[in-house]
Structures are given as structure tokens and as C-alpha cells.
Specification:
With 690 residues, this protein is of the alpha+beta class. The protein contains 19 helices and 14 strands. Helices cover 54% and strands 10% of the residues. The strands form 4 sheets. Strands 1, 2, 3, 8, 9 and 10 form a 6-stranded antiparallel β-sheet that branches. Strands 5-6-4-7 form a 4-stranded antiparallel β-sheet, sandwiched between helices. The protein has a two-stranded antiparallel sheet with strand order 11-12. β5 and β6 form a beta hairpin.
């Protein structure tokens, strides 16, 4: 199957004797091929199946292991472990170790709560110790109200006039008071104290004695509990090293068993039979039929066929929508890491184009255009290789590492095209730099100033200038701006062509399908873009292009009128609103195209940051020749700026490349309502399948 389409799906229906249900579940678990449509219990005489008897026991053990996994940072083994070994650990050492870990975790929580309370108590006692009053004397009077707290101005309190007893102190520049007055004056005094910035202190209850003594005791206790906490934390860390891999394997095996034991709740059963409903990939349908043949009396897989005009997930208010199958990606190897991008938006609706393969080319292209530096490309690829090496059986981490390698390749490729290394231009017409040592990578003609230091240069129609090397910071700066606008123009039209294809074959969420619907839904926008380009080039381009301006304006205006009809007839928007909305949406297409200029702007900013750090290079060389230790400081400064430029270069271009794909491109055609295909069965990572 083409990689621009998702897998063709089929609806599986199977039935058989109830006594065979365990055999069916085991077969499906081994196949890992059926996406269950869980039975809802709506049919008379057919009920939900019940879990096997061991499900409750396995569930409790699984719950304990999940609790343990939430406490430690456990990592799985680098190689798969046999089932028998994992079962042996689950029946012996691992379960005991988990119980011990849970106990230590409880003790750690208690210690942390005690530390929190003690720290708060010590903070209070440090304030109260400045008053030099026994703590039991600060509160709990019948006829006297005590105000114990901090103020912003002690002098103001002393001069506010009161009939009572005042104690003052200062602790770490914080002013503390204890004021004792008769109950009848408390309300009036409270108002006065508020004006002095009074903040009450929670006096410790059930405490007696000198505050300084209590403070010393609390600090000793704090030290003891801190040591206890550290000891428990060290024990937990040691536990993770000793049992972490076993915990991960045990979790995987128990989750497998729990899924199998509880699988009958997804199946409809009667007194004597069972009924299974679900989705399978048509490429595996014969395998599924063969595996279930011995345990099912009836089994059928019907290929899913989209009804034209009724093929999208779309709007929920269309109650007659046919139930759509889940989405399984095509079998990929090289381009599979780009599924991370597609999943970030949502899987495509069934039958629609899958953008993953296209992004395999365009995402590294856009990223490379922005970062475009050989040094940063090498660093990014090295980081990706490191992530891949450490990913083990973690597929997500492995794909992430490959993704870094791909965007690193794009960065390195454009860095070579731009002749840039660590922010330096390798071939620079004005001054020398260390990157000139790489000039051997370019033909001799690249050193000729007669061609602006280009080995090759080509002028194409519509103001397109191509060159090698392409000096984006100097001689080809304006050329790059024009190229990014043209790239956006082509990219958005490509998105509209994909949408045209989808409507042509599968229709819209509003039920329109065919060539006319495809033209008004997407072709009109292509016409608008072409007309807008002709007008813009005629207006801004060379004098000989002025003849394009009027035809372009006419085409664009005609497209706007057709867009009014699209909104009215195909989207159900009232005509009066469509007349206003169509010109607004048409104008809104221009920012989408211009948005691609960020491919130029983001990269230039990154180069300028790197150039700022490179200004330290010459002073560093001079200091090094003089054996001045400042050379080391300057080198570290240069290195930090380079690392910052690379880090920002990886972060910022990813954001902008994602925006150009997810917002500017995908919104032209993409329906992200697809449900992920999640087959029931074993998903082996660390434990071998029995």
C-alpha cells in the first residue's frame, strides 16, 4: 500500500461456542491484530462477558507494581528477558521487594511531612526567641488578648497608646512584638496594629519552656529527621538499581495477563455462544481468519468501503454518518519518525491523505533552511545518534533520536549549501576566520570574486536566483526572502491539491462530492493564489511583468466571487454573510504565504547570535599567544554562545517548522479526526512472548 494512504481496514465479525472463548482470546492476544469494538450490551439475550477468576488477583498485584513504578525511576533491561525468569521474580523476590519499597515510601512521606512541620515551627520559634518569653505565656488567657506577630514599624506600635504590656524583638531584621491588653480593648487595638503592618504568628500549642531551648531541640530533631529522610531516599535509589529492571518487566507481563483476563468484558456472550466485533488491517485478514478458524464457528472480514460524500468523521451533527474504522499507518521504516508529527496533530480521517511521507521531506527541508549550519548539523545528528543508542527497546525514544538525525541532516546539508560553520561563512570576501580551513569542500571557482564567491549561479524566471554556495547573510539575502515566499506559495497550493483529491473521491463533511465540489472547496483557492501571484508579481516585479497585473487582478476577483458561492452553497452560510466573509478569507490567504518568510528570518537571527560569540575569537587568539589566562575565559564565553545559539537553533526552528506544517499547510486540507488503531494483544518490549 502506498505510504501516502493509511492501511485499508476491514470489519471482523466472529462467533462460536462459549466454551471456546478462552482459546479465541489467547489467539487474538498472540496476533495483536484486532481493534475491539467493545460490545455495549444493547442486544436482548446477549450480555457482556465476565473477566476470568484470576483477574482480581492479577489486578491487585498490578496495582502494587504500578504504585512502585510511580515511586522510582525504573529503567527496563537492554535485552529481552524470558517469561519464566519474570514469573519467578513475581512469585518471590520482586513482590517482597515491592512491599519493602512501599513501606519505605510511606516512611519517606511521613519524614517529609515532619520536616515540613518542623521547618515551619523553627521559623516561628526563631521569631519568638527574640522576645525572650516562655512560649506558654504568649497565649491562652481568659481576660487578656495577646497579639503576637510581626510589624513593619515598632516605634509606631510603642507610640500608639495602649493600656497593656508590650514586648519587642528583632530576628533577622524582622520586627516582632507581643502585646497583651484587656479583652474589651482588643478590637480597637487590632485596627491600630493593622496600620502598623501587623501579621500574626501562629504560636505553637501544647509547648512549654524557653523559646531558645525549644528552638535548639527542634533543630536537633530536624537534623535527625533529615538524616532519616536521606537514608530512606538512598535506600529507594538502591532499590531502583537492584530491582528497577525486574519491576519494568513484571509490569509488562502483568499488564499482558490482565488484558487477557479482562478481555471477555469486550465480547458479547449468550448462554452458549460468544460474538466478537472489531477492525483488522486487510493486509492481515487472511492471517486472522486462519488463526481463528479452529475456535470460531463463523468468521468474516468485510473490507470497509467509504460512501462518497459520507466519508469523513467530520461534524458530529450528521447522525447518519457511517461508523469509521480506526487509523493504522502504512508500514514504514525510514519515514516512520515523522509519525510523531502526525500524531501531534491527530491521525487523518479514513481514506484521506496521510501527510507523514510528505513531512519526511519538507520538515527537514524547512528546519535546515532556518538553522543551516554544518557545525550545528553535526551536533544535532550526534545528539540523535546518542538518543538512539540509549533508547533500548523504547520505540518512542528511538523514533525521537531518528527525528533528530533527520533534522540534523537537513541542517548540515543547508549549512554546506550556505557555506556556514559555527556562524562563520567559510568563503568570506572581507576577512579571515577559522572556518576558511573548510574551503577545500568547495570547488576552486568558489574562491573567485568575479562571481560573488559563487561556484555556480543561475538566474531563473520570476526573479529566482540560485547559487552555490548560497550566501544567505550577504549577497543572497534578498534572494532567500523571495525563495521562501515562493516556497510558501507552492506548499500551500500542494495542500489544496491534496484537499481537492480528498473531496473528489470521498467528499466533504457536508455531503458534497465530485469534481465540481472539489473545485469549489479547493480549486477556487488555487485560482485565487495564482491570480494573487500574477497581480503581485506584475505590481512588484520588473517593468516587463506589468502586463500580468490586470489579468491577475481579474482572476483573483473572479475567485473571490466563486468563494462567495462556496460559502453559501457548500457551507450553508447565509448569502449576506458570505458576501462579506469571502473577501476577508481571501485576504487572509496572503499572511499564510508571507508566513513562510520566517524560514529566512529565524535563520538570520541565529546566525547573528553565533556571530556575536565569534567576535570573541580574535581576542582569544591574541590572549593565547601572550599566554594570558583570559584566553580560557574567552574560549568558554565563545563556547557558551555557540551552545546557546545551537540550543536556540534546535528549539526555535522546530516551533516555526511545526507551525508552517500544522497551521499554514494542514489547515488547507487536513481532517485530524482519525482514531488510532490499537490492536488487542501482546506489545513486547522487555519480556519475550510465550
Amino acid at each position: 500500500m502506498s505510504q501516502i494512504n493509511t492501511q485499508q481496514m476491514g470489519r471482523l465479525t466472529a462467533a462460536g461456542s462459549k466454551s471456546k472463548i478462552d482459546d479465541v482470546v489467547d489467539a487474538l492476544a498472540n496476533l495483536n491484530a484486532l481493534h475491539f469494538i467493545e460490545y455495549d450490551g444493547s442486544e436482548d439475550g446477549i450480555d457482556l462477558g465476565t473477566p476470568k477468576g484470576e483477574a482480581e488477583i492479577i489486578g491487585k498485584r498490578l496495582s502494587k507494581l504500578r504504585s512502585a513504578a510511580s515511586i522510582v525511576n525504573a529503567k527496563g533491561p537492554t535485552e529481552q528477558v524470558s517469561v519464566n525468569k519474570v514469573r519467578s521474580e513475581l512469585d518471590g523476590s520482586l513482590i517482597d521487594a515491592v512491599e519493602l519499597l512501599l513501606e519505605k515510601s510511606t516512611k519517606l512521606d511521613i519524614a517529609e511531612n515532619q520536616l515540613s512541620s518542623l521547618i515551619e515551627k523553627i521559623q516561628v520559634l526563631e521569631l519568638l526567641s527574640s522576645l525572650d518569653i516562655d512560649v506558654e505565656l504568649l497565649s491562652d488567657y481568659d481576660n487578656i488578648t495577646s497579639f503576637v506577630g510581626t510589624v513593619s514599624d515598632i516605634d509606631l506600635v510603642e507610640n500608639m497608646g495602649y493600656d497593656g504590656l508590650l514586648f519587642t524583638g528583632i530576628s533577622n531584621k524582622i520586627k516582632v512584638i507581643a502585646l497583651f491588653i484587656k479583652n474589651k480593648d482588643s478590637h480597637h487595638m487590632q485596627s491600630k496594629l493593622n496600620n502598623a503592618g501587623f501579621q500574626a504568628i501562629n504560636v505553637p500549642i501544647n509547648q512549654k519552656g524557653n523559646t531558645n531551648s525549644l528552638l535548639s531541640e527542634s533543630k536537633i530533631k530536624l537534623s535527625a529527621i533529615s538524616e532519616e529522610k536521606k537514608s530512606i531516599s538512598d535506600d529507594i535509589d538502591s532499590w531502583s538499581e537492584d530491582f528497577g529492571a525486574s519491576l519494568v518487566c513484571g509490569l509488562e507481563l502483568l499488564e499482558r495477563e490482565h488484558d487477557i483476563l479482562t478481555a471477555p468484558v469486550k465480547i458479547g456472550v449468550s448462554n452458549h455462544a460468544f460474538l466478537i466485533d472489531g477492525w483488522v488491517e486487510m493486509s492481515r485478514s487472511n492471517e486472522v481468519l486462519s488463526a481463528l478458524a479452529d475456535s470460531c464457528l463463523y468468521i468474516e472480514v468485510s473490507p470497509f468501503v467509504i460512501e462518497a460524500g459520507n466519508g469523513g468523521h467530520g461534524h458530529s451533527d450528521h447522525s447518519n454518518k457511517k461508523e469509521m474504522p480506526p487509523i493504522a499507518y502504512a508500514n514504514r521504516k525510514i519515514s516512520k519518525p515523522m509519525e510523531l508529527l502526525t500524531n501531534a496533530v491527530g491521525r487523518p480521517a479514513y481514506g484521506r491523505i496521510d501527510p507523514t511521507l510528505f513531512m519526511f521531506f519538507t520538515y527537514p527541508l524547512f528546519f535546515g533552511m532556518m538553522l543551516g549550519d554544518m557545525a550545528y548539523g553535526l551536533i544535532t545528528m550526534s545528539l540523535g545518534a546518542l538518543v538512539i543508542r540509549r533508547s533500548g527497546s523504547n520505540e518512542m525514544m528511538n523514533l525521537g533520536g531518528k527525528f533528530l538525525v533527520y533534522i540534523g541532516l537537513g541542517t548540515f546539508g543547508f549549512g554546506y549549501l550556505y557555506a556556514e560553520f559555527a556562524g562563520w561563512e567559510i568563503i568570506h570576501p572581507h576577512h579571515h576566520n577559522p572556518a576558511e580551513a573548510l574551503s577545500f569542500l568547495y570547488p576552486e571557482a568558489a574562491l573567485s570574486s568575479s562571481h560573488n564567491y559563487h561556484a555556480w549561479h543561475k538566474s531563473l524566471p520570476f526573479g529566482i536566483e540560485l547559487a552555490y554556495p548560497f550566501h544567505r547573510v550577504t549577497t543572497n539575502l534578498e534572494d532567500l526572502i523571495i525563495l521562501t515566499i515562493y516556497l510558501g506559495f507552492v506548499h500551500i497550493i500542494f495542500g489544496r491539491l491534496i484537499g481537492f483529491r480528498d473531496v473528489l473521491f470521498y467528499g466533504t463533511d457536508h455531503g458534497h462530492v465530485g469534481l465540481v465540489a472539489a473545485f469549489f472547496e479547493h480549486g477556487v483557492w488555487i485560482v485565487l493564489l495564482l491570480g494573487g501571484f500574477m497581480f503581485s508579481y506584475g505590481y512588484l516585479g520588473p517593468s516587463e511583468a506589468q502586463d500580468m497585473m490586470i489579468p491577475g487582478a481579474v482572476i483573483a476577483i473572479i475567485a473571490v466571487f466563486m468563494l462567495m458561492w462556496t460559502l453559501y452553497n457548500y457551507h450553508g452560510i447565509p448569502l449576506a454573510i458570505s458576501l462579506i466573509l469571502a473577501p476577508i478569507e481571501a485576504i487572509g490567504m496572503m499572511p499564510s504565504v508571507i508566513s513562510y518568510v520566517r524560514l529566512f528570518a529565524v535563520g538570520i537571527v541565529g546566525v547573528k547570535i553565533a556571530e556575536t560569540g565569534n567576535m570573541l575569537w580574535d581576542p582569544m587568539k591574541d590572549a593565547l599567544l601572550e599566554y594570558n589566562p583570559l584566553a580560557l575565559v574567552l574560549f568558554l564565553g565563545w563556547l557558551l554562545v555557540q551552545l546557546f545559539a545551537w540550543g536556540l537553533g534546535v528549539f526555535s526552528p522546530n516551533i516555526h517548522a511545526a507551525r508552517l506544517h500544522f497551521v499554514e499547510w494542514m489547515r488547507q486540507y487536513y481532517d485530524s479526526s482519525g482514531e488510532a488503531f490499537l490492536p488487542f494483544g501482546f506489545r513486547t518490549r522487555h519480556v519475550e512472548v510465550e
